[in-house]
Amino acid sequence: MSSSNNSGKVLKLKSKDNQIFEVEESVAIQSELIKNVVEAGCDIGVIPLLTVHSKTLRNVIEWCQKHVDYVEENDSGSNEEEIKNWESEICEEGNNNGSDDEETKNWESEENNNGSDEEEAKNWESEGNNDGSNKEEVENWEWEENNDGSDEEELENWESKFVDVDKDSLYALLLAADYLSIDSLLERVIKQVADVIKQCRSVEEVRQTFGIKSDFTPEEEEEIREEISWID
Question: Which structural domain, as residue segments, surrounds residue 100?
């Protein structure tokens, strides 16, 4: 199974249930564990992921692919190059001060430079050759390009839906993110767990939600409640 259509080196990952996933290296090394294997130059052909089931690994790869795509689409370097090209076009189309000054002088000479002509020339220069306005236009364009925020919001919405799964799947993602050392996924799953806990109204509800069995006997729990009753 390939996770991307982009050209590049492909790594083979083997899940706990022996399924092989072919993944672009740029995607796979979102995992610090896999990145360390690659940087160590370990030529083992297939990288075994002994604790990650294929269903979970498929989801993990999807997460990594999404974040690689996001970074590539929002690469500031490409925006800077686009800005420079745009500025060059503006200059070529009529904002070259040298040619404008010469054109102004010729126009003044041909029109018998009197007071009214001189004033008109100055007005023309002010309206057509104001570098400040062009600079402001460029700055506004740069701000709009780099402060849109729609892509970031879209990614956040996607992440929220990604972790909105049943508790077993969420737990599997948590273990996989920890094992593979994918910080972005681990942090997002932990946040989701915290949000679920906040919605629970009691310790019993937390236990029921996550299938947690108490280590205490009913008598011990009652004793603890009495000891901390002052907290309420």
Answer: 77-146
Give me the mean pLDDT over the 59-68 stretch: 97
Number of domains in the chain: 2
In this predicted structure, the answer to whether residue 153 has a pLDDT above a threshold of 60 is yes
The CA-atom distances, in angstroms, between 118 and each of 87, 140, 183, 192 are 30, 33, 67, 70
Whether 207 shows a pLDDT value over 50: the answer reads yes
Contacts of residues 181-184 at CB distance under 8 Å and 24 or more positions apart, as own/partner, are 181/31, 181/32, 181/33, 182/30, 182/31, 182/32, 182/60, 182/63, 182/64, 183/32, 184/30, 184/63, 184/67
In sequence order, the 6+-apart residues with CB closer than 8 A to the CB of 35 are: 29
Residues 113 and 164 in one domain: no
**Mean predicted lDDT score pLDDT of the chain:** 79
With b for 16 or more beta-carbon neighbours within 10 A and e for fewer, the 192-207 pattern comes to bbeeeeeeeeeeeeee
pTM, rounded to two decimals:
0.62
Centre a 10 Å sphere on the Cβ of residue 52 and count the other Cβ atoms it contains: 24
Please spell the DSSP secondary structure of 34-54, one letter per residue: HHHHHHTT---SEEE-TT--H
